[in-house]
Amino acid sequence: MVKIAWHNLFAHPLPKGHRFPMIKYELIPEQLLYEGVISTSNLFSPEEVLEEVVLLSHNRGYWEQLSDLTLPEREQRRIGFPLTAQLLERERRIAQGTIDGALHAKANGIAFNVAGGTHHAGSNWGEGFCLLNDQAIAANYLLHNGLSSKILIIDLDVHQGNGTAEIFYKEPRVFTFSMHGDKNFPFRKETSDLDIPLEEGLADEQFLDKLEETLPLLLAHQPDFVFYLSGVDVLESDKLGKLALSKEGCKERDRKVLQFCKYNGLPVQVSMGGGYSPNIKDIVDAHCNTFKIGLDIFE
User: Fold this and answer.
1) Torsion on CA atoms 148, 158, 29, 137, rounded to nearest 10
2) Among 36-40, 78-82, 147-151, 170-174, whose mean pLDDT is lowest?
3) Model pTM?
4) 129 — alpha (psi -120 to 50), left (phi > 0) or beta?
5) Which CATH number fits the domain 3-298, given the four candidates 3.40.800.20, 2.60.120.1440, 1.20.1290.10, 3.10.20.30?
6) Which residues form the signal peptide (predicted)?
């Protein structure tokens, strides 16, 4: 059975002015349940990730400032959210959800996190709405426990996965691939193993052609596990993105990645990443398509 990490803290951990579009974390499972795509048995609520697991990816000093709620205000501004105990709990549950999802994926082929994709969090910083890097934490958990030997991270959010790139810069067992808007945040990029910056306004055909020609090249790393960040801020309607994919193009992107994983026998954990279109329906529809494609390919 495919498992999906979800917790009600994903939806409402923030002050009132920060909640949109975070309400998507509540609406996505509701929509999938309403359409009959999943049942409640597919959903699970993760616990909080343990400190020793966080410290496989994040520096102790940064972690202690988070856990003691002493992170300097300038660093909180960089994150974009005021630091609270509830926000930290949310991030810890998201990270554990991605770990649990990775373990489910190893057994069943695929698993999802309704939240996650917090790829701007580096080893000693948070930024861009990210405190803890969920897929980095889960990747290091698999490596540390001998559950994987070589990992591939496919990041197709409109923003470069700068935190992920920094965490794994000197880790040869993890190959980081980021295909992102060249002019999008973060404006100071880190160095992934493979970065493909895309020009502003790039639409479906060019994006999908570039992805299709790149995916086979990633097998040279000989991965045995994949983490996929499927942000829908690549949509033309996104107010923070500078690409121009349609919903159908975004759906085809997911199909190509997940078929690549299935065909090559690679279990995959999927985190949702960004999505900031003014119409919440566009965000939810595009994210739900990711779930539907995954379930169709792997079940």
Assistant:
1) 30
2) 78-82
3) 0.96
4) left
5) 3.40.800.20
6) none
Distance separating alpha carbons of residues 210 and 34, to the nearest angstrom: 35
The 10s digit of each residue's pLDDT in 101-119 is: 999 999 999 999 999 999 9
Per-residue pLDDT tens for 8-58?
Answer: 766 555 555 444 457 888 999 999 999 999 999 999 999 999 999 999 999
Q: How far, in Å, are 58, 61, 89, 200, 252 from residue 291 at the CA level? A: 29, 37, 25, 27, 13
Residue 193 sits at φ, ψ, to 5 deg, of -65, -35
Which residue is associated with the tokens 């554990």? Answer: 96
Q: Do residues 254 and 289 touch, judged by C-beta distance below 8 A?
A: yes
Widest distance between CA atoms in the chain: 48
